[in-house]
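Anyone have tokens for HTH tetR-type domain-containing protein? Sequence:
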Amino acid sequence: MSGIVESAGRTAGQGAELSEGYAGQVGTLRRALLDAALEVFTERGYSDAGLTEIATRSGIPVGSLFQHYGGKQGLYLALWEEFREEQERRTAATLTVERDRGVDDPVTLFVAGARAYLEGAWDNRRLGRLFAEDDGPSGFDALRRQWDRAWVRRNARLLEVDERRRAGRVRVSVLTTVIGGAARELGDCGDETEAGEIVDEVCGILVHLSVPPG
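Reply: yep, here.
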């Protein structure tokens, strides 16, 4: 009896190790596919990008690409999700640090979050340039508008703006549009110094525009 128990225990342990190893392999495979997709999308645009070329650059068969992402649209949307989540994570982390320091002024917090977002746009500028182009899968524009509306609502809460008042909603929408436009400009910056100047300039504009009239 003890021999069976010991054997089962070893099998279970080996199974866990195999499971962890498999998860690591899958993560590596997906990373390779996404990196290759970003290269091809950036060079050729979404419409002209070919799955065969993406698979070739990643060193992974086309069949595996379909298995993990279902095709070109799935790759594009996975890149978008990665970019969006990283921007939200970076902004949230900055706000946490500021609040832990005792900062509670809505405008100060908003501008700190905007700076984090813009710095992330510079760090991830290849993705930013990709999503700024009017060349994505069917339905992507609607998805981006949905995210933009959620972004405006988050900024309204951060600025403690009464969303029931049209003037307040418009002000937050304008501020959010300024950040988005600056993020697109950062994608074309020549170097980090120029990018830093733009971030500083935009944050100064946001301070001025964020203060409620009167």
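Confidence is low (pLDDT under 50) at residues 1-11.
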